[in-house]
Design goal:
The chain has 10 helices and 10 strands. It has about 270 residues and is α/β, with parallel strands linked by helices. The strands form 2 sheets. It has an 8-stranded parallel beta sheet. Strands 1-2 form a two-stranded antiparallel ribbon. The relative contact order is 0.14. It binds nicotinamide-adenine-dinucleotide (NAD).
Amino acid sequence: SAIPSIILNDGNVIPQLGFGVFQVPDDEVTPVVTAALEAGYRSIDTAAIYGNEEGTGRAIREFGLPRDEVYVTTKLWNADQGFDSTLRAFDTSMKKLGLDYVDLYLIHWPVAQADRYIDTFRAFQALKSQGRIKSIGVSNFTVAHLERLIGETGETPVVNQIELHPRLAQRELRDFHAGHAIATEAWGPLGQGTLLDDPTITSIAAAVGRTPAQVIIRWHLQLGNIVIPKSVTPSRIAENLDVFAFELSRDQLDAINALDNNGRVGAHPDTMT
Ligand code: NAD
């Protein structure tokens, strides 16, 4: 397919555009992930806390692609941080997914007050050395958390998955990532839907003859972000992948960049426990 790849700092490769399953119930997620695979997505993003690893894994296994042709990400939940508890939580996730390995395992939130993300990442390193995780990364880390993690473990996470969309463009973190070969992965890439009626977005969409969702996804791709939009509607699932036959101009990118106003839709990493 036409989905570009991003080469991670450990040499592994992730599709730049993937599919997220936040808030899709386990008993509804199997046909949704199947629709995404049918549309051509080859990267699926779930998490233990989403409660849908079983239905997600079932869709991936029953679709029947060779295992190395689909990229699977899951995440360790906050309450499971710590060395031994991470090993146990990873086993639980793998049983639910029904897979031998995951491509990417993420620390879901830093939870810095608990002060366990260093031990957690050491457990990730151990699981990686056993071949059960191909790449290890983090989510919702700030520059301060990243600096400490790299300093204390000597290993740089391959990605930091952060809330990122036109109203929260995360320039400081993206600059830090660029300086440390950390790939930026955008969650809530459409502002969880809140950006789709923004007049700047809708006017650019009209100008290029595309939908607002396609324009925003294109902005992410042209910025170099890994992006994982979510929809449960098959037509929108396909629409969000149909973004490789047009480009935004420099002026259109700049107009979208001007929407950045610290407009966070999710929790702040320093307050999430
Ligand atoms: P999103 O920005 O992808 O928005 C999803 C919503 O936008 C949908 O529920 C739907 O209402 C709407 N939408 C999607 N496509 C559309 C289209 N073509 N036309 C009209 N409306 C459309 O929000 P998200 O699901 O929160 O983020 C994407 C993924 O990121 C999640 O599914 C999850 O995998 C991941 N995520 C990670 C974290 C984290 O802490 N690491 C947090 C939230 C989400």
